[in-house]
Amino acid sequence: MNMIRKITISLAVAVLLLSALISERTMAENLSSRWIIDEHTKSRLFVGGYDKEKGILHLGWQVSLKDGWKTYWRSPGEAGLPPRWEWSETKNIRTISVNWPRPELHHIFGMDTYTYHNEVILPIDLEIADKTKAVSIALNLQYLICADICIPQEGDYSLDVSKLGNIEISPFQKAQLERYRDLVPTKLPGTNIVVQPDPEQENMLMINLTEDITSVENIIVEDPDGFLLGQAASKGKSQYNISYNAKQSLEGRELTLTLLLNDGRAREMKVTVHP
Length: 275
Hints:
By secondary structure, the protein is mostly beta strands. The chain contains 2 helices and 19 strands. The longest helix is centred in the first third of the chain and has 29 residues, at 2-30.
């Protein structure tokens, strides 16, 4: 009798554990698009968090690349293409914000590019229009992957969230997204940073950082028209020179600086070029 009871209890525990695993798997699948798998990549769109007070749904676009392949940051550099996002069928969403984890500087054929390799998750914040209604998400994404050759990729991702009030998100998906959210540059005001043309060199900017910003590995400078300036060259404590090929003057233009720090962190700020 004791043996039968032990077997019964063991079976009951096994059923409960299996049910929990199935429930977790089902929950994750309900909050994730299907995986799109091809010869070089595997990608999906998934929910990794929800801020009930602000009505912000946190998504992640995840792509895994085979060894030797890479894809591009929002400003790819001297080669490559950035991803192109199409959200035309998305419903009950007020705003969409794509965030970009710190990229890697990649030199190829004498050109500087900013890329991701192996895997990246791009955090996406969706502001919900009506928190009492269901959310329908549909994304068409075109992006480029490169190794010895480059291949354009395209994926259609969709998922529905019917009950935001009691949404339950897989802890694994939360952890995956948070890992990459931590790599997104911290946004800071650039009011105390001085950027101006170098009076001694044509097509050269001088950047003077504040003294509290130290251990800078690289500075990425983006123009509002979408082109990148050259690599930063240190000219001493907190001062850098950066070349550019723009035909027009940059005076008065607002630039985006992304500071890559030696400890793996990054900072991002908007600055205006002084005369």
